[in-house]
Amino acid sequence: MENNSSAKKGFLLIWVPIILVLCLFGLVFLTIIYQNNVVAAPLNNFDKMAVSDGFHTISIPNGRHWKLSYEQNHDRIFTGVVRHTSMDHEPDYPIISFDILVTSGDFASPTLVSTDVTDHHFTWVNLGKTSPQGTINLLHTVPMNQAVEDKLAAIKNGDTVIIQGWDILKIDGYDKEGNYIGYWTDEGCNTTLVTNVTIQ
């Protein structure tokens, strides 16, 4: 018994300090990464965005900013039943807040059309005997302020909504030093500067 107890004490004396030091180094490492914006926290207050050029430039307090260009006919209204909603959380584009799938007609019926949203893309499968009628749009939302973001956050699957905004063609991103970090553009979806949300 005494030998076993001594072995346990020796084990603890060796490994506990090593584990504590590793945890401390890990904490320091994560802090450095966070402060240098390698990992970006989601934007938690859209009223902190600084907007200029009629919403063609958006910057946030840490110095990162984005330049937005819009579709030629950019005014859009999306009306229908929500079949998916999730936080977006793209580290390089924290101004994009939600992925919301808005459907109408046959696309709003789970018995007629199966839908799926994965990695900011949507797919659908016709379950009926005829070609589905209606609309299906996956919105990547950029709220114009925190009040709009709060309304987007309140949307649940099955809600009937009206979402108004401007269709965004492209978002060019820049880090806090002004270096270009790349662009966001959608493929068959609708990246949208949302100006108004109605949940019916």
Summarize this structure briefly:
The chain has 200 residues and is of the alpha+beta class. It is 21% helix and 42% strand.
Which descriptors would you attach to this protein?
42% strand, OB fold (Dihydrolipoamide Acetyltransferase, E2P), 5-stranded mixed β-barrel, alpha+beta, 21% helix, 200 residues
Describe this structure in words.
With 200 residues, the chain is an alpha+beta fold. It is 21% helix and 42% strand. The protein has 2 helices and 10 strands, in the order αβββββββαβββ. The longest helix is centred in the first third of the chain and has 34 residues, at 2-35. The protein starts with a helix and ends with a strand.
Low-confidence region ranges: 28-41
In which range does the helix fraction lie?
Answer: 10-25%
Order of helices and strands: HEEEEEEEHEEE
User: Helix count, per DSSP?
Assistant: 2
- Total domain modules: 2
